[in-house]
Amino acid sequence: MVKVPKTKKRKAVEEPTPVEELPKLKAKRISDEPIEKKTKWINKQRVLIFATRGINHKNRHLMEDLKTLMPHSKPEAKMERTPDLRIVNEICESKNCNKAILFEGRKKRDLYMWMSNVPKGPCIKFLVENIYTMSELKMTGNCLKGSRPLLSFDEVFTTLPHLQLMKELLSQIFGVPNYHPKSQPFFDKVYTFSYMDNRIWFRNFQIISEEGELAEIGPRFVLNPVKIFNESFGGDTLWENPHYISPAKLRQAFNKQAGNKYMNRIEQRIAAKVSRPEVSYPVDPIDDIFKEKVD
Amino acid sequence: MDSDEELQEAFAKGLLKPGLNIPVKAPREYKNNVSALKNQINSLKLNLPWVEKLVLTNALAPMAPEMAIHMEQQQEQRAKQLKSNIKGKGKKKEKAVELEDDPVINDFKRESMFYRQAQAAVLKGISQLKELGIPTKRPEDYFGEMVKSDQHMTKVKLVLEKKKKEAQLSERARQQRTQRKMAKEMRISSTLKKHAEKKEMLDEIKKYRKGKTNNLDFLENKKKPVNAGRKMRDKKFGFGGKKRGLKKNDRQSAADLSGYSGQEYSLPGKSGNSKFNKGRNKNQSKTGQKNRPGKSRRVQMKAKRK
């Protein structure tokens, strides 16, 4: 859609729309009328989205996508990597945010995502896998900037306590608050959080028709939970993922296997050489005596 | 049990058995503090109406029939591809097909599951919003900034069109390939048939020559069906033999006056014998042949026919 200048946009909102659709909007406002105070905005979630130094371009694009999709987010300059992440709490406080998403890149390769409820915790650390950004051309959908998404969770999220906690935190971070000043009062997208293979799969679909026709908007990513901490960016570990293997370890194992392949082959060769019998089949030389022709 | 002395003591007591002794690591315990987790959930929960949060927990929507068909087709195609990729190695093939059923690996299956989950959420969520009396659709004339720019969307459209075109082209190529294959088969079968017929005929002739049969029916049976058009043309233009000088007059033909009545060339008034004109059509001449209309009439008629 065409980007409309701000004044024009406001005008568009106030334009008389069909009565049954938006009954609350008036056709005209009298200039003396006192400006109505917006008390409707109750759910005040503000999410700080930023990254540490050392994330690669794809991960950065993913972060930008999340920022565009979440009107209740606030940006922040990228942070120096520190062993203790408790400084983030202070940054959030100064930015007046009560939720945070921190992207932490390792080796320009692996991406970790921290999600936290800021002053009190809890905090979840995820490994992000299989990233596809919104700018990918196979994602054909599009939606209004700032529209509120429906959040769809798999039924598994109601079963185990750690999954319940993840659902609660994810829904509070990704859900756009009602009557948020930057949000739009229309519903044209769904986020799905599905649980499969011990991971959380995120998808974003555009609602083309309300009978259930959808098109994917993007981004796509898979969250592999690592740990849940009691406090924000620290504290006791409440839960650990028993299925989690760090990508560095996986790579190590692969390398080892590849290295072992060569060693294994050499060992086999030596073993074969050693165990090879000197005589392949014991033949009695006397057996051949009468076979030879005598002239 | 690290130092040598300790080990020796342990061996003396019979704790250590001879052979290779490896220190066994205790399996790592993974933390799962359920009570603390539950406390956190309770403190985190927002006591707000549903509209503020829009959270839905739902199962998958039932699969749409067209999607099921699409999925089946996709599976067939995949199976075909696998067949062509892995030839002869039965074990490997089986394994590959098995893997296809796992939604973690099978992209299409997995994505369709997510799609269905989203579908169920839309159906449920929109109806819930409508119950609360909240408008969901935006008016037609409402323009706002979109997440993806116009430029990007045109790019997407172009790519989609290109893909569609490519699919069409490949489909056409496939059809042509199959047609060519069919034609080749037909050609081969027809030549084989011809050869077989010839051989049969020669065999029959051989038999006849050697006096085994007196029957010559096989010569007539195998006659080709007569082409009516060919017959006409043969009759008209002649078939076989000398054509030169065929239309030349000779003594006999010059003397032959059977086709000449004499009346044709007489004046209309003189020939006014009403007897002759009685049974004739307007278009028919006296010789019984159809009259050819003039050039202008013929042109008119041709135009009318078209």
Key words describing this protein structure:
heterodimer, A: 295 residues, alpha+beta, eleven-stranded mixed beta sheet, elongated, B: 306 residues, mainly alpha, 12 helices
Structural features, described:
Chain A: Residues 45-234 form the Brix domain. Chain A: Required for biogenesis of the 60S ribosomal subunit. Chain A: It comes from Trichogramma kaykai. Chain A: It holds the Pfam family Brix. The complex is a heterodimer of chains A (295) and B (306). Chain A has 295 residues and is α+β, with helices and mostly antiparallel strands. Helices cover 25% and strands 27% of the residues of chain A. Chain A has five helices and eleven strands; from the N terminus they run αβαβαββββαβββββα. Chain A has helices at 6-14, 57-69, 87-94, 161-174, 247-275; strands at residues 47-51, 73-75, 99-106, 110-117, 123-132, 150-153, 189-196, 199-209, 213-216, 220-231, 234-240. With 306 residues, chain B is mainly α. Chain B contains twelve helices and one strand. Chains A and B meet through helix 1, strand 6, helix 4, strand 7 and strand 8 of A and helix 2, helix 3, strand 1, helix 6 and helix 7 of B.
Q: What ranges of chain A have pLDDT less than 50 throughout 5 or more consecutive residues?
A: 7-19
Element-by-element helix/strand order of chain B: HHHEHHHHHHHHH
Total beta strand runs of chain B: 1
Shape of chain B: elongated
- Topology as H/E string of chain A? HEHEHEEEEHEEEEEH
The total count of helices of chain A amounts to 5
Family (chain B): Belongs to the EBP2 family.
Biased composition (Basic residues) (chain B): 292-306
Region (Disordered) (chain B): 167-187, 211-306
Subcellular location (chain B): Nucleus, Nucleolus
